[in-house]
# Entry
Amino acid sequence: MAVERTLVIVKPDAVKKNAVGDIVRILQENDLKLLAIKMVHLSKEQAKKFYIVHKDRPFYDELTDFMSSGPCVPMVLEGENAISRVREIIGATDPAKAAEGTIRKKYGTDVGRNAVHASDSPESASYEIPFFFNQLEIHDQY
Ligand code: DAT
Ligand code: MG
# Structure
């Protein structure tokens, strides 16, 4: 077991559903400490850079259009095994296949508009956290 940090994004669809507060609550109630949070509206170019690992996937253009379609809410969470635990709490990529009680089951619309993003490995977290937050914006002393 190790204390990890992970990046979660409430995607534009879930921001529009006014689900930000509920999603933060669910994560905090699962012993994840909120270290940073903000609201940003990504440009298409910024969305393409964030999702660069998917640049050759057929859904890259659709995904980056969606992620730049409105404001989203990135946040940094910390806890024991935070990366894999958050992936379980959010559920499967396709909300139709997500388990009962998961965030994507509750708020996702379809495989493209699936309410939340979460880092899938320590390597992706180490790219994704500094993509949105600098050191001064990450608070672990409370
Ligand atoms: P995850 O977000 O569960 O890590 P992923 O990394 O495979 O999933 O894909 C990134 C995002 O791309 C995903 O959250 C939604 C979108 N996406 C994935 N598969 C898709 C598909 N078949 N059609 C449309 N969008 C898709
Ligand atoms: Mg992924």
The mean pLDDT is 98. The pocket of magnesium ion (ligand 2) is lined by residues 120 (CB under 6 Å). The CA atoms of residues 35 and 64 lie 26 Å apart.
